[in-house]
């Protein structure tokens, strides 16, 4: 009996927490996943240079998208999509000069900003737009 009440209390707390997390202003939960190397339906090549992200407008269908990111600069750069990864995730997709890495995301239709989070790099031009269609 006591255990059952505790279980109900946990379920109630979870329901309240879920309710609090639902305002529309909250971005979707992070959807990048550990299976970054897994095949995606769409593969898009993105180049990081000192200081640009190419292409400037990245067009992709919505859904599972795999980005093959190469750092063609002479310093480290980061590949970051703030809305998809959350504001507190940064500098987690750092690439050394010459390094090539694959990152996969599930992207809903919409427009997303893509940036390098290293201080000063966005301002220097390392910003692009991901335009995901339906
Ligand atoms: Cu950079």
Write a compact overview of the structure shown.
The protein is of the alpha/beta class.
Would you give an account of this structure?
- The chain has helices spanning 2-20, 82-85, 121-124; strands spanning 42-49, 52-54, 57-61, 63-71, 77-78, 94-95, 100-107, 110-115, 127-133.
- It has a four-stranded mixed β-sheet with strand order 2-1-4-7.
- Residues 5-35 have low confidence and may be disordered.
- The chain is an alpha/beta fold and 134 residues long.
- The chain has one domain: Immunoglobulin-like (Sandwich).
- Bound molecules: copper (II) ion.
- Residues 77-78, 116, 118, 121, 126 line the site of copper (II) ion.
Features:
3-stranded mixed sheet; alpha/beta; binds copper (II) ion; Immunoglobulin-like; 134 residues; 4-stranded mixed sheet; 3 helices
Instruction: Enter the CATH topology name.
Output: Immunoglobulin-like
Q: Please give the alpha-carbon distance between the first and last residues.
A: 50 Å
Binned, the helix content reads 10-25%
Side by side, the strands of the main sheet go: 2-1-4-7
Bound molecules: copper (II) ion
Shape descriptor: globular
CATH superfamily: Cupredoxins -  blue copper proteins
Order of helices and strands: HEEEEEHEEEHE
Q: Using only CA atoms, what is the Rg? A: 18 Å
- Report the count of strand segments: 9
| Secondary-structure class | alpha/beta
Q: What's the overall average pLDDT, rounded? A: 78
Uncertain runs: 5-35
Count of discrete structural domains: 1
Oligomer state equals single chain
CATH architecture: Sandwich
Query: How many DSSP helices?
Result: 3
Biggest sheet features: 4 strands, mixed
